[in-house]
Write a structure and sequence with these properties.
Helix content: under 10%
Number of domains: 1
Oligomer: single chain
Length: about 375
């Protein structure tokens, strides 16, 4: 299996833009953010309430529609609405609506271009990326009042490069992600809440085209989880804590090209969730504590496991592929219990695949589903 370059979660944007199936901002948001909710427990074998939703203006053709990528503590979902021309537009709102849609000034209007937000924090600030009319990637942060901070992937030569990926935001407004330099080598970065861009590169990261270091997730203390791709094509986990960068390999991870360890998410306890590819090119999930203790896992019936996010209680949201090549969302509690998330077919719409990509503090998950006509639909799951 060929694994996409970069974090399995945050490379979702390339997945959506290419159609390869492997894988507020505003006053209304502040109202939802201020509504506290009790913790929802995960009961093994329970069936969550799963609600598909559509953002008005989303296309209804193949690989068009609505995609959910992040969710905050007020159940505000952020994601991408792909229109009938294949252009991405940002949106945010509760699954029941209404949704606010937006386009970053300067975003391109061609197929595969546009605005592609990734995450929303508790105050309603959104982070993501956009593609201009030349297909160049830029990061953005959108405040709860609708103002924008935009920044190019400025690396070795302080010039925008042609590659980059998701900007992930914490409660203070700091973001992480990865960008390519002018030689096509990737570097992770931390962009502070004040706008300072700090590059980081793992010591063993490869220096050839499409190799390098990738920032994947950030906690509220600006600790970062990510990965690096070395000169042999092997992936390694990366953590950056208090400015100290550490690489690690999960036990059982393969050491051949396109094998290794992917760190996808980190919570405020320093616990990291991610995937590893073993010597048989099989994908498994793992969770790694701040002390380095690792537990590997796979949901029942999984042939490939893709953890995406971990919340403060240690609950992981992700997806897995079964023996019939069907994708399902899942939640895994800190004690190791699983529940499966599938979009329910209704009203003539039959859903074939489900992915869970975000989770908040009350274990409400956000993601997306693909119907039998290959149209995307947003998804909210409540345990």
């Amino acid at each position: 299996m060929k694994i996409p370059l970069g974090s399995l979660h945050h490379h979702s944007l390339s997945f959506l833009r290419t159609g390869s199936v492997a894988i507020c901002l505003f006053t209304i948001c502040l109202v939802y953010v201020s509504t506290a909710q009790p913790q929802s427990a995960i009961q093994p074998g329970s069936t969550p309430t799963v609600t598909p939703f559509e953002v008005p203006g989303s296309g209804t053709g193949t690989l068009q529609g609505t995609v959910g990528l992040g969710i905050n503590s007020g159940n505000m979902i952020v994601g991408v609405s792909i229109d009938s021309s294949g252009v991405g537009h940002g949106y945010a709102g509760p699954a029941s609506g209404p949704f606010v849609t937006f386009d970053v000034p300067g975003a391109g209007t061609g197929s595969g271009q546009g605005t592609w937000p990734q995450t929303i924090n508790a105050s309603g600030t959104i982070a993501g990326l956009y593609y201009d009319s030349n297909g160049i990637t830029y990061g953005f942060v959108r405040s709860a009042t609708g103002s924008y901070s935009k920044f190019p992937c400025q690396m070795a030569t302080n010039a925008p490069a042609g590659g980059g990926a998701a900007m992930i935001i914490n409660t203070s407004g700091a973001v992480t992600g990865y960008c390519a330099d002018n030689n096509g080598v990737f570097h992770g970065f931390l962009r502070t809440a004040a706008g300072k861009l700090i590059r980081f590169t793992a010591p063993g990261a490869g220096t050839a085209y499409r190799q390098g270091t990738f920032g994947g997730s950030i906690d509220d203390f600006n600790s970062i989880a990510g990965l690096d791709l070395d000169s042999n094509g092997v992936y390694h986990g990366v953590s950056v804590v208090q400015g100290k960068l550490t690489t690690f390999d999960v036990p059982g991870a393969g050491t051949a090209s396109d094998q290794g360890t992917f760190a996808s998410a980190i919570n405020n306890a320093g616990t990291i969730a991610g995937s590893y590819i073993d010597t048989n090119y099989v994908l498994h999930g793992f969770v790694r504590t701040s002390t380095g203790a690792v537990t590997s896992f796979d949901p029942p019936g999984a042939l490939a496991t893709f953890p995406a996010y971990i919340n403060g209680t240690g609950t992981i949201a992700g997806s897995y592929t079964d023996a019939n090549s069907v994708n399902h969302g899942f939640l895994r509690s800190s004690s190791g219990s699983f529940i499966t998330i599938d979009c329910p077919s209704s009203g003539g719409t039959v859903y074939a695949q489900t992915w869970a990509f975000g989770i908040n503090s009350t274990n409400v998950a956000a993601g997306f589903c693909l119907d039998t006509n290959s149209v995307w639909h947003g998804m909210e799951s409540v345990p």
